[in-house]
Design goal:
This protein has 288 residues and is of the alpha/beta class. It has helices at 27-35, 44-53, 72-83, 104-112, 125-133, 150-160, 176-187, 211-218, 241-254, 257-268, 272-287; strands at residues 11-15, 38-41, 63-65, 87-91, 117-120, 140-145, 166-171, 192-197, 205-210, 227-231. The chain has 3 domains: 11-123, Cobalt-precorrin-4 Transmethylase, domain 1; 126-231, Tetrapyrrole methylase, C-terminal domain (Methyltransferase, Cobalt-precorrin-4 Transmethylase, Domain 2, 2-Layer Sandwich); 241-282. The strands form 2 sheets. Strands 3-2-4-1-5 form a 5-stranded parallel β-sheet, with helices on both faces. Helix 7 (176-187) packs antiparallel against helix 8 (211-218). The structure holds S-adenosylmethionine.
Length: 288
């Protein structure tokens, strides 16, 4: 038996659970799941399975469903239990609660009422992906899921274009190819990127390359499994703005602004939107 029964102070315990391999759970997380007076879970079926795998008996303890949309009723119930001196463990379906998962409103309300809020930290797909990507980790921005609609997705990507940090996204396998194609187009095909499927599971798969490579590799294909995508920050230092301007001026002598921008963006591996703005500025200067 890996767990022991411990006396827990009244409060809310966020417990991280595995993102694939069931044994990726800390001993303290097991102790808390074995000892809390009440277990709340985003998905009670997955929680029962996890308890079963680790030989933790539910006994007479309540196991209730909670997600932030459960509404105020369940949240109030949890807060009342804590007020009465009980300990409540909360887990989302997989990984760390609150990370693209429920728990935020619960955390906020319980803390606002002055009760203990603590955590048994553990796996999260975004941090696992960052560890494996081979991209800079000094600064990163976790964006979660991009919008479903193509136009909204492209707009969001454009908003992220100049952020000097590794960008981390969760993505559905159905949308991966389209997302990578949009990212290559909006952010520039030359940016380094990685997509990872099924982290910590049997078919873990890590694909690295430029956005253009990855988009091309996946064009017309559907993949399966759970996915994280990471994209490197724009490497503005590698391209000299004066070189871009010289190329743009030459292209503008022979082509429309749009065609010149497309050709130079492609040649320099820069985002089309950025080069188009430069071409517009140069084009209007030329016309004066
Ligand atoms: N709370 C979780 C965490 O800490 O990572 C994330 C929950 S979110 C609803 C689920 C998404 O996380 C999946 O669609 C996928 O993008 C990503 N994910 C979760 N497990 C993964 C895994 N084993 N491999 C790759 N991506 C994973």
């Amino acid at each position: 038996m890996n767990h022991k029964h411990v006396k827990l102070a009244a409060g809310l315990y966020f417990v991280a659970t595995p993102i694939g391999t069931a044994r990726d759970i800390t001993l303290r997380a097991l102790d808390i799941l074995a000892s809390a007076d009440i277990i709340a879970a985003e998905d009670t079926r997955s929680m029962r399975k996890l308890l079963d795998i680790h030989g933790i008996a539910l006994r007479e303890r309540p196991l209730i469903a909670y997600h932030d949309h459960s509404g105020d009723r369940v949240r109030e119930k949890i807060t009342q239990w804590i007020e009465q001196g009980l300990s409540v463990a909360y887990s989302s379906e997989a990984g760390t609660p609150l990370i693209a998962d429920p728990g935020y409103h619960l955390s906020k309300d319980v803390a606002a009422q002055g009760h203990l809020v603590t955590a048994a930290p553990g796996p999260s797909a975004c941090i696992t992906a960052l560890t494996l990507a081979g991209l800079p980790t000094d600064r990163f921005l976790f964006e979660g899921f991009l919008p479903n609609s193509k136009s909204q997705r492209r707009k969001k990507l454009a908003d992220l274009m100049d952020i000097p940090a590794t960008l981390i996204f969760y993505e559905s396998p159905k949308r991966l190819a389209a997302m990578l194609a949009d990212a290559a187009d909006v952010l520039g095909g030359d940016r380094q990127a990685v997509y990872m499927r099924e982290l910590t599971k049997k078919f873990e798969d890590i694909q690295r390359g430029t956005l253009a490579d990855l988009a091309q590799r996946l064009a017309g294909q559907t993949v399966k499994g759970e996915i994280v995508v990471l994209i490197d920050r724009a490497d503005s230092s590698s391209v000299n703005p004066e070189d871009i301007e010289t190329q743009l001026r030459q292209a503008l002598d022979q082509m429309s602004v749009r065609d010149a921008a497309d050709a130079v963006a492609q040649a320099m591996g820069r985002p089309k939107r950025e080069i188009y703005q430069m071409a517009l500025a140069l084009g209007s200067g030329n016309n004066r």
